[in-house]
């Protein structure tokens, strides 16, 4: 008998089978979609357009899961529990393709799904897939939602998000913004990269990417950033391999700009792996001074080291410790700038990791917020009098962000919020209308604002002794 977490029928061939293998891994092994997809694409040898199709099928299917399952549960007996996991994944991705990827002719999509079903299962499964998909095509997809739904239920079904999450966002941000967050979560992210200012200007990076056929332009959000369409995977470019740029979301690039470390300073990054922000801080320090990059997982030290080496940075020192123990481990040392880029629920990166919205629970948010408050206490301890503490997360849950910061400040009167952010950041926010009146030094970026990840950053200052 086939092991439940192994896709039957051998190595996936072609974009749809690669996507099927990835969805099957996410479903049966709880694999991360991005990691699973990268590995599968590398092993597949697919052309760039086919890799793009497999990517769209994987992310789209996970993004639209509750809408797809709602419909399939009406058509397939015992859905989902009594249907083999790989058949579930095949039906879901075929549904996604028929409804939202209409550039592929519908009959071709159905024939291909039936071929895969027969190849990996048997004629009976082929018959089931054929019947379900042809039934969908016959009846059409435009089903009116019942009237009288609450706003949360309506948005949840129209935008394929769990209702508890939509309810939360309506309470925190209002109905209109909650809907825009959900829409943005269903929009594929553009690729973005950060110029290593020690080796290249961003104008040079833009020009080099354009000469390779990409549609590249300067980021509207970060002074170091470049956004690129039709560029393929930027990690495979010479620009990346030569250390002239780093692949990073535009919102993350704001952290080093806001921390604003100067050459010669001592800087600590408490939760550093894989090193995106540590290396950015070091680049902005012109590789002068000391950057201590710590992470709890010893095996991740090598990831940070690799990035520092690739970028030609020698001021980065790596270490592995629980950040809660750093005050004891670093014995009396203190730092001009401390960054706590905390582990979080990731609700700001749903467009990149759509499984987050189905896997996270309100309890996860509460327990993460409790951990973040402890991590803030430990990090604050290591800031010099007059020094800076920056707290960031890639989530949009208030408990993990503004509330965690307020709790920290209430316990530590020696700290205060610091709104004196560098003009390069404040002007961008002001011009786009996202600098709130009475700006306090905390920023919550939502994913629809700049098309970046949802991200939170607070800058605090420790009083001089
Ligand atoms: C948001 S990620 C950091 C991303 C990183 N700053 C970057 O820009 O590349 C959070 C990191 O915190 C680490 N982590 C989780 N709990 C930790 C703890 N108690 N102490 C130190 N690091 C921790 C995780 O291993 C993970 O690498």
Ligands (ions, cofactors included): S-adenosylmethionine
Structural class: alpha/beta
Describe the sheet with the most strands. 8 strands, mixed
Number of strands: 12
At CATH's second level, what is the architecture of the largest domain? Answer: 3-Layer(aba) Sandwich
CATH level-3 fold name of the largest domain: Rossmann fold
Unreliable stretches covering 5 or more consecutive residues: none
> Radius of gyration from the CA trace?
24 Å
Please indicate the percent range of residues in DSSP E strands (runs of 2 or more): 5-15%
- Helix coverage percent of residues? 40-55%
Tally of contiguous helical segments: 21
What do the pLDDT scores average to?
94
- The coarse overall form would be globular
How many domains, in number, for the residues?
4
CATH class of the largest domain: Alpha Beta
Euclidean distance between termini CA atoms: 69 Å
CATH superfamily assignment of the largest domain?
Answer: Vaccinia Virus protein VP39
Family: Belongs to the class I-like SAM-binding methyltransferase superfamily. RsmB/NOP family.
Pfam families: Methyltr_RsmB-F (PF01189), NusB (PF01029), RsmF-B_ferredox (PF22458)
Function: Specifically methylates the cytosine at position 967 (m5C967) of 16S rRNA.
Keywords: Cytoplasm, Methyltransferase, RNA-binding, rRNA processing, S-adenosyl-L-methionine, Transferase
């Amino acid at each position: 008998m086939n092991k439940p977490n192994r896709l039957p029928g051998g190595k996936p061939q072609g974009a749809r089978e690669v996507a099927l293998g990835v969805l099957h891994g996410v479903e049966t092994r709880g694999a991360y979609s991005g990691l699973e997809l990268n590995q599968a694409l590398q092993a597949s040898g697919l052309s760039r357009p086919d890799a793009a199709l497999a990517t769209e099928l994987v992310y789209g299917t996970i993004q639209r899961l509750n809408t797809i399952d709602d419909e399939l549960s009406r058509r397939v007996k015992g859905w989902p529990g009594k249907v083999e996991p790989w058949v579930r994944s095949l039906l879901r991705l075929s549904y996604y393709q028929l409804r939202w990827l209409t550039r592929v002719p519908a009959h071709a999509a159905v024939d291909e799904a039936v071929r895969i079903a027969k190849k990996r299962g048997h004629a009976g499964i082929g018959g089931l897939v054929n019947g379900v998909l042809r039934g969908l095509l016959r009846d059409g997809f435009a089903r009116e939602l019942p009237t009288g739904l609450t706003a949360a239920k309506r948005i949840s079904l129209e935008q394929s998000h769990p209702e508890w999450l939509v309810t939360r966002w309506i309470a925190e941000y209002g109905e209109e913004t909650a809907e825009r967050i959900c829409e943005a979560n269903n929009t594929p992210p553009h690729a973005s990269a950060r110029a290593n200012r020690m080796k290249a200007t961003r104008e040079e990076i833009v020009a080099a990417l354009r000469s390779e056929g990409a549609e590249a332009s300067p980021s509207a959000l970060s002074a170091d950033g470049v956004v690129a369409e039709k560029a393929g995977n930027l990690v495979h470019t010479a620009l990346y391999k030569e250390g002239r740029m780093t692949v990073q979301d535009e919102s993350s690039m704001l952290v080093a700009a806001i921390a604003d470390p100067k050459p010669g300073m001592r800087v600590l990054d408490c939760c550093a792996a894989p090193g995106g922000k540590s290396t950015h801080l070091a680049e902005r320090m012109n590789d002068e001074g000391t950057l201590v990059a710590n992470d709890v997982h010893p095996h991740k030290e090598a990831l940070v080291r690799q990035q520092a080496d690739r970028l030609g940075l020698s001021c980065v020192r790596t270490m592995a410790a629980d950040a809660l123990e750093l005050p004891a481990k670093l014995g009396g040392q203190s730092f001009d700038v401390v960054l706590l880029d905390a582990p979080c629920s990731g609700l700001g990166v749903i467009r990149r990791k759509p499984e987050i919205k189905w896997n996270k629970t309100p309890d996860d948010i509460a327990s993460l917020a409790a951990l973040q408050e402890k991590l803030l206490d430990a990090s604050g301890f290591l800031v010099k009098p007059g020094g800076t503490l920056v707290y960031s997360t890639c989530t949009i849950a208030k408990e993990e962000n503004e509330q965690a910061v307020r709790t920290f400040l209430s316990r530590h009167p020696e700290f205060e919020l610091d709104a004196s952010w560098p003009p390069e950041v404040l002007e961008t926010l002001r011009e786009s209308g996202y600098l709130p009146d009475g700006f306090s030094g905390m920023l919550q970026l939502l994913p629809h604002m700049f098309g970046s990840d949802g991200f939170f950053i607070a800058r605090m200052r420790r009083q001089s002794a």
